[in-house]
Amino acid sequence: MFAMDTGIFSKFMLAIGAIDQPVAWLNSSEHIWLKMWGWSTWKGLGWGAIMYLAAIAGIDQELYEAAQVDGAGRWAKIRYITLPGLLPTFFVLLMLSISNILNNGMDQYLAFQNPMNKNTIEVLDLYVYNITIASRRHHPVFLRHRHRHSENLCVRHASVRCQLCIQEAPGRVHHVRRWER
């Protein structure tokens, strides 16, 4: 798909005139964060689509029928029935995204890491992996130092995630209590 000469993406970009020559998309370190964001978004589109389709399927059909009787058109049904019906799903997915902000999909970065982009693609989780598991040095002194360093990074990473969840929780409790009145 991303091959330099035969890939669909390169052929498409050449056809629309966005690039003049084929590009080695996976080997170059240029705009690596933009590429990772694009691939992560593409990877998550299917799951999001399933969630929103399930939410739309859960909206009561009698609401659409009543709107039809009242003379509502397609756009009015979308504005006054479908969009308000999707709001709970939207806010759940938003809260999941906020709580998952520090999780950067290390598996994706590990899969796309190569010697040509190793200096620019490394994120915290991948750095911890590289200094502990992928390290070629097996001398006990090096391993002891590297494991202490990686444990320290993991504890700090977990504490920041816990702090984000704790800061997010009071807003949710207050929001629920306000609607119960």
Instruction: Specify the biggest β-sheet.
Output: none
Question: Would you identify the regions where 5 or more consecutive residues have pLDDT less than 50?
Answer: 172-181
For the secondary structure, the number of strands is 0
End-to-end Cα distance, whole Å, is 54 Å
Write the layout of secondary structure elements.
Blueprint: H1 8-15, H2 32-57, H3 61-69, H4 74-99, H5 106-112, H6 118-121, H7 124-132, H8 140-180
Helix pairs in contact: 2-4, 7-8
Task: Write a structural description.
With 181 residues, the chain is mainly α. It is built from 8 helices and no strands. The chain folds into 3 domains: 30 residues, no CATH class; 69 residues, no CATH class; 80 residues, no CATH class.
Give a quick precis of the structure.
This protein is mainly α and 181 residues long. The protein has helices at 8-15, 32-57, 61-69, 74-99, 106-112, 118-121, 124-132, 140-180.
Key words describing this protein structure:
181 residues, 3 domains, 8 helices, flat, mainly alpha
